[in-house]
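ugh ok so i messed up the first submission bc i forgot one of the chains. this is the corrected input, ALL of the components this time, i swear. 226 residues overall. if the numbers dont match what u have on ur side tell me asap before i send this to the collaborators (the ones from the other lab, u know who)
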Amino acid sequence: EADIYQTPRYLVIGTGKKITLECSQTMGHDKMYWYQQDPGMELHLIHYSYGVNSTEKGDLSSESTVSRIRTEHFPLTLESARPSHTSQYLCATGNLGQTEQYFGPGTRLTVT
Amino acid sequence: GENVEQHPSTLSVQEGDSAVIKCTYSDSASNYFPWYKQELGKRPQLIIDIRSNVGEKKDQRIAVTLNKTAKHFSLHITETQPEDSAVYFCAASRNNNAGNMLTFGGGTRLMVKP
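and heres the new structure output, hopefully the right one now
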């Protein structure tokens, strides 16, 4: 069944560590997005990509970076984690020419 | 940029009653308005959407209305059930170079009391 996968689902890490949050999809979609969401609060777009080798920053300023080397894979990297990065990170996908977006299960990150 | 406001932030209703959540948006170029339901610890799920060329859309117990002139849209849930309890997010979408970007409202926590 087509789906969006995020790993790890939960991560507790110390300040200053480098981390990569993985997002992969079998939806066959070209568009991929990263959102940041504090529990129960609104979602903020931090990065998006409309295809391989295409990445853009979203509305919310973020110290993270992304890459899109393969259509199905859109990892997000934090070079040096800080407590202010503690949040949930949601990956989403969409099809070119369509407006619907579908979400992955999220990664809950805690930086101590 | 786009700004989406959502009200109320919390809503408590008795099972069987109706629930209405309202959103306003600022960018008149926005043309797609989805609603997501997020249960505790789960991913947001798209439950219904409406485009700017339509005034109302209904799917069983849920409906969405859009007033483009006033730049507001609403979610209506009839005959609420305890499993409707969740956080609901509205969003507005505008197009850019190759696709669309969603701006979300702040969310409404709906509690349906049995």
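quick check: Chain A has a mean pLDDT of 94. that seems consistent at least. The two ends of chain A are 36 Å apart (CA to CA).
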